[in-house]
Design goal:
about 60% helix, single chain
């Protein structure tokens, strides 16, 4: 037997066609999607960061839909695992504001005109995130009428129970007194807080904190906190870049974002804490 040291094998470099990595990741597609519209070098980071945000929206939607499906099937640990993954993904998503958070008004204005009427408000995947959180409105489908696939996916999401709807249905099946009016509500409408649901969470949090439903509540609270941080970071970045001017796409800009930051996701999970 030879005791001579063997050189490590070189990686396989010769492939027929594209590499397996390219076939799986589609890196060539991703890295050639950037088509800047101004001559300003800062536009590239704005465009790439926005595209990265869209990819994270896609992952988070996948996790929350996985969680909602698991809750329908009474598989709470599977739902909690998906929610916990989404927390890490939301942290990465929120970090996307860092390259944009230091923009001065002059820097943003140098390529703002390239956006035209474009606005993150028009993101179909972000709207699916909001629908999953229970913040629904049929009018939010209107901007997407020209994109049949995205419109169909949004319309489907509008009429399906939100993630929180599935949570409340699970609690009802486990014997908690979720009102019939909440369980039978029109799920295409925005969820409104309920005093009775607040009492359910109060009772649940007053019991065994290691109960799987309590752990579900905490996973949802982690998600809600990071969604709030996303909205707040968006507000701060916008305030730094453009002050109180009207936003792109005809929105009210900072005023609209300030209103968003005042809205709690999964509201009774927050208000119930005052009664435990």
């Amino acid at each position: 037997m030879s005791h001579e040291a063997h050189e490590p094998e070189a990686p396989h470099l010769d492939f027929h066609g594209t590499t397996p990595y390219e076939d799986y990741v589609k890196a060539d597609v991703l890295t050639h999607l950037q088509q800047t519209r101004s001559g300003d070098p800062g536009e590239m980071v704005f465009l790439v960061t926005t595209q990265v945000m869209e990819l994270w929206f896609t992952v988070v939607v996948h996790e929350w839909e996985t969680a909602a499906r698991a809750l329908r099937e009474d598989r709470v640990p599977v739902a909690v695992a998906a929610l916990k993954r989404s927390v890490r993904e939301l942290e990465a998503l929120n970090s996307s504001w860092k390259p944009l958070g230091q923009l001065t008004p002059a820097q943003f204005n140098s390529y703002r005109a390239a956006l035209g009427e474009g606005s993150g408000f028009q993101s179909a995947m972000y709207r699916r995130m909001e629908f999953l959180l229970g913040d629904k409105s049929a009018s939010m489908l209107v901007p997407h009428r020209g994109a049949p696939r995205g419109y169909a996916e949004l319309e489907k999401a509008l009429h399906e129970p939100s993630l929180y709807d599935e949570v409340l249905r699970l609690l009802a099946r486990r014997g908690y007194a979720v009102p019939r009016a909440v369980l039978d509500r029109d799920v295409s409408q925005r969820y409104e807080p309920s005093d009775a649901v607040e009492e359910v969470w109060t009772a649940l949090y007053s019991g065994d904190e290691n109960d799987e439903l309590a752990r579900l509540g905490e996973a949802l609270t982690d998600v809600a906190e990071l969604v709030w941080r996303w909205r707040n970071d968006h507000l701060v970045a916008t305030r730094r870049a453009m002050g109180a001017k009207s936003g792109t796409g005809g929105s009210a800009g900072v005023a609209w974002l300030e209103k968003r930051t005042r809205k709690n996701v999964f509201p009774e999970l927050w208000t119930a804490r005052s009664h435990v």
